[in-house]
Structures are given as C-alpha cells and as structure tokens.
Amino acid sequence: MSSDRFAIFEQYSExxxxxxxxxxxxxxxxxxxxxxSLVKDIAPKSVIDIGTADGWxxxxxxxxxxxxxxxxxxxxxxxxxxxxxxxxxxxxxxFVLPEDLGSVVDTFDCSICLETxxxxxxxxxxxxxxxxxxxxxxxxxxxxxxxxxLSLIAKQAGRWLANRKGAYGYERYxxxxxxxxxxxxxxxxxxxxxxxxxxxxxxxxxxxxIRGFGRIDKELFSPNLGxxxxxASTVIWIVKKTA
Length: 243
Prior knowledge:
With 243 residues, the chain is α/β, with parallel strands linked by helices. The protein has a single domain, classed as 3-Layer(aba) Sandwich (Rossmann fold), CATH 3.40.50. The chain is 39% helix and 20% strand. It is built from nine helices and seven strands. A seven-stranded mixed sheet has the order 3-2-1-4-5-7-6, sandwiched between helices. β1, α4 and β2 form a beta-alpha-beta unit. The longest helix is centred in the first third of the chain and has 21 residues, at 22-42. Residues 1-9 have low confidence and may be disordered.
C-alpha cells in the first residue's frame, strides 16, 4: 500500500466534513444530520454499515445511543484498518472486509449504505449484501449522489470552488457532456473516469434496482430545499424489507 493512497483514506472524514468550501460542507453536514434523525426514528438495536469508510457514522450512532451494537464493512482493506484503529474504545463495534461477513450475525435491524453504490461496478451485487443482512421487517437506509440536472450544475460549481483550495476532487465535463447531463438530465453515454468517479452516475437507475429488493417507504432529498430534488446534492431512500 502506498503512503499516498493510505493518506487519502485516512483523511476521508476530514476532507468530507471539514474540507472544501462552505457550500460543500453544508451539503455533507446536512446529509449527516438527516441520517442521524432517520436512524433515531427507526430505533434499531443493531446496525450494519456497508461501505463504512473510516467508521465515522457507526461511532457517532453509538455515541448518541441510537444503536447498541454495530458492524462496518468496507471493500478497502486500508479503510478497515483505519476504522479499527479509530474505534478501539468501542467494544460493541466491529469492522470487516466483505469476505468476512459470514463471521458476523445473520441479520441486523437496520442496514445502511451511504454514498457507496456510485463507486461499484455492479450495484445489484452490493444491494444483495445490503438486503441479505437486514431482518425481514427491518429497514435499509441508502443514499447516493444526484449527478444530473440542476443539481449537477450547482455541485460542479461548488466542486470547482473547493478544488481551488486543494485537491478536493473535481471532475471536468465537456460542454456537450454538461449540456446532456446538466440541462437534459441524461447521463447515458457519459464515461466514468474510475471507481471513485461520480461522473455519469444516474440515481434513477439505482432507485429501480432497489425496488426489486424491498418497499421504498420514503424518498428524501438533502439539502431539502422544498423543490423535490432540484438543487439537492443527495437522495436518500428508506426501504423496508418485506420478505
């Protein structure tokens, strides 16, 4: 593992919640507070977080007493290592790689997957894990970014400003690509740059996949500007597993 790659992972939470500019920080922190409130409403005893990164969410949920036991799973061994090192004072919290999920309890009251599906090759495979680990009658909380329409135009402006302060993560669009994805809300045919790329991602395809796994009880947007997703950064689904 290169030191540069490890440093990128190690600084994940700091970059998301403390980096960027006021606009990007507002979007990330607003989503975080909404997730807290959703978990509190569900009131689960046990939670699993698929794509847990450095484990920030699960530590916060336990600190707030929104759950009593939790497991975090991430495909990046570096992230699992960082999450474990930051969670040594949390005896009810474990972190595992996907291949080790068989060693944890069968199901949880709530399965969480935040800002992860846009980074995988096969969303259906990840959703199968998410829903295989939530008990019947339990809930999944899933969020993905909105990268089409006016939301994309606003986000690209914020990313460009944030990137002026450092390597925030700005992906360039050609004029034709921005016309297609930003004005026409059509992300088809736009090439993804790598597994970390948001470019070309369409949340509407994810929504259709989710409907094959459970009942979408709520579709929420963050920030909630009262515009049904226009200018929102993220869409969040509350999905009940019925069978």
